[in-house]
From TrEMBL:
Name the UniProt record assigns to this protein: Protein kinase domain-containing protein
Annotated PROSITE patterns: PROTEIN_KINASE_DOM
Organism in which the protein naturally occurs: Podospora aff. communis PSN243
Any one Gene Ontology molecular-function term assigned to this protein's record: protein kinase activity
Stretches assigned to the Protein kinase domain: 1-295
Residue ranges of coiled coil: none
Amino acid sequence: MHATLYEYTDQPAADDARERLDPIQLIKNRNIHKPLMSFETAPLGRYYVLFPWTDCGSLEELMTAGYWTPPSSEVFSWGLRQMVSLMDGLKALHDINVRHRALCPTNILLVGRPGSVTKERRLVIAGLQPKPLREMGKVTYFRTVTNSRDKSVAGTVEDVRYQDDARTLHPIRGHGGPFSRKSDVWSIGVIFLEFIIWLFQGVEAIDNFRESSGEINFDGYEVKLQADGENEVFSRALGTLREVPRCAAGTVWRDLIDILDNSVLAEESSRYTSAELHARVEKMAMDAKADHSYVFNGQPVKTLCFKPGNPDTESTQTKYLSVGGNWY
């Protein structure tokens, strides 16, 4: 049996996980990756949560491992459907007043058999995720629960890149306010932005975008952010995407970018709820199904560059076209 096991050694964190697990288990939604079971050991009092193992990895692995296929109507339509599914899962969590609190590409899983066709490979939200290590103590992930521990991999902290600006840890700003459901919406917005960039041009464009935001390191409570802040970084990225021919006015990608800019990566008072964003994205997917040119207009590639300076267009595109694989 292959599974993923979360081990909570800190009692407050275990209590928090247990409290969140109960309502999540009651959700009947295929877009949430729910635990199989949970149990506690005595006398140490350690709490464990067992998840089904996913052979296909996470969205982070998909976007950074070179699994990219040049854009097509099929690939773009698949990507749009995944956004609808992720919003459906997030809305289901919010409908029962559960905040995910750790949305990032690592916590978005790709499920289905490796090498299978598009309809069998889909993105889902990992329904229960631990808090950052700074708050909860040690978390250990085991690849195989029936074998030895030599296949375990260390847990990683929540990436501050996906926290909304009001909550981002910062030596000056501090820790921000309480985590609201709209903070999850901000997180999914950043994920969608990166997902669109990856769909357009693959891993090198993702690296370029992430480097453009400056150094974002987590070391205890110290986080170094680019001086002009996250909002300016995202605004520049959205502006760059608007110049891409495949993101021209009248396409779903331009409409999505406008929504991200105005109603998602925005002040909390102006930000969509998960239900509102789900409704908008779902309507776009329906329109794209009726008109394929809405999702893929067949315009030529334009190299994305989010950092100052001119990209080496020839070498960059050669690398893009050399990577591929039946990832979808």
